[in-house]
Specification:
single chain; 114 residues; alpha+beta; 5-stranded antiparallel sheet; 4 helices; 26% strand; globular
Length: 114
């Protein structure tokens, strides 16, 4: 028997507007349950967002079979879209634009201890 591959890992960064930082943190002290459930239903696990000054770092693991389709399902969820109307104004894209038009930009994994 071979070792299982395990979930795929994804990481992203975005800036948080200094004047909106506390609002963003406040929102994430009580993320809406339906938003969390949609993420779970779309095979997202171990989702974390970290803050360092005015930079947000997000990490999640994906255990499904079709990442693009599941991300589209998240984007189509009405409650998630409503949640984003609160969080998006707090954010600003930083760094190079690797994912065209997106605020949160993917970053490369350099090393992983398994």
């Amino acid at each position: 028997m071979g070792a299982s591959k395990g979930p795929a890992r994804y990481a992203f960064v975005v800036g948080v507007k200094p004047e909106m930082r506390e609002r963003y943190l406040e929102l994430h002290r009580s993320v809406w349950p339906q938003v969390e459930q949609t993420l779970r239903d779309c095979n997202v696990t171990n989702y974390s967002i970290y803050v360092f000054g005015d930079i947000l770092f997000a990490y999640y693991e994906y255990a499904g079979e079709n990442h693009d389709a599941d991300m589209a399902r998240i984007g189509e969820d009405p409650k998630t879209r409503e949640w984003w109307t609160h969080t998006d104004p707090c954010q600003v894209r930083i760094g190079e634009e690797r994912l065209q038009g997106a605020r949160w930009q993917p970053i490369d994994e350099v090393w992983h201890l398994s």
